[in-house]
Amino acid sequence: MHRFANPTRFVRLAGRVQPWAAALALLCLGVGLYFALFSSPPDYQQGETVRIMYVHVPAAWMAMFCYVVMAAASASSLIWRHRVADLAAKATAPVGAAFTLLALVTGSLWGKPMWGTWWVWDARLTSVLILFFLYLGYIALQNAFDDPARGARAAAILAVVGVINVPIIKFSVDWWNTLHQPASLTRLDGPAIHTSMLTPLLLMALGYTALYVWLAIIRMRAELAETKIRAIRYRQASGAAPAPQES
Amino acid sequence: MEAIQSFLNMGGYAAFVWPAYGATALVLIGLSAMSFVRMRANERALAELRGADDEEDA
């Protein structure tokens, strides 16, 4: 891992991964959408609303996955002061927030016809809402200090502490009574879902993951360029206005 | 025509299924476009700054 902490090495590796991630995302999402909307059957209980699952469940997985990535990157930026880890955490936050928002919105659109309500304050829904606020808090903290380094540190600490919420989300459906159904895939006795529905679900999940990789790379590149611009401007400003001469 | 209509109707759940897919497309395409435009703008600005820097140095 430490070998990739060097920004130059990261840029070289990212340049190689970026087109593949984009291609994989487009391919998986394209084929996944075809399976999700056309070739998968309606559910015997939920009818056509089951198609919401193919955008809802991968979004919820990515919401948690992105948070774990963000927290791990924040921890390594706190411990080893890795510049690239800090960039990765910063680039991941808005993507994770977007996936969390989508999990909430699509879940709400699924809950209304199936549960008869847009929202309930139960453990699963509330803990995902808290996840969304953790992302927003992380983004807000970064910009709350005049010194970007202090903002990055404060945000990284929030990200690391907030990781406790991830197992709470995962196990909330087992620990508390909830309207939300328990896991269908990650069960000891194997997935309780038919192949015709598992195929689009996994394709969409893979597509989302590839999209995340692509987004993280281009957001890190943007951030890296911005830091360099700031450094050059600072150097120019201090060069253009020399210190007053001694009298 | 009927097949298209029944597809769009989503078994009577069109009002829930399509907004879910629409919101997903909107957010993911929007975020991708914004991120890409920002990356390109920053890298161009950096290249220009560096070009100017080199001229100054010369």
Strand and helix layout:
The complex is a heterodimer of chains A (247) and B (58).
Chain A: H1 7-39, H2 53-80, H3 83-115, H4 123-142, H5 148-162, H6 165-175, H7 195-240
Chain B: H1 2-9, H2 14-57
Structural commentary:
With 247 residues, chain A is mainly α. Chain A has a domain at 54-188. Helices cover 75% and strands 0% of the residues of chain A. In chain A, helix 2 packs antiparallel against helix 3, helix 2 (53-80) packs across helix 4 (123-142) and helix 4 packs antiparallel against helix 6. Chain A is globular and about 70 Å long. Chain B has one domain (2-57). Chains A and B meet through helix 2, helix 3 and helix 7 of A and helix 2 of B.
Protein traits:
heterodimer; A: 247 residues; mainly alpha; globular; B: 58 residues
Mean pLDDT of chain A: 89
Rough outline of chain A: globular
Looking at the structure, what is the overall shape of chain B? Answer: rod-shaped
Query: Could you give a short account of the major beta sheet of chain B?
Result: none
What's the short story on this structure?
The complex is a heterodimer of chains A (247) and B (58). Chain A has helices spanning 7-39, 53-80, 83-115, 123-142, 148-162, 165-175, 195-240.
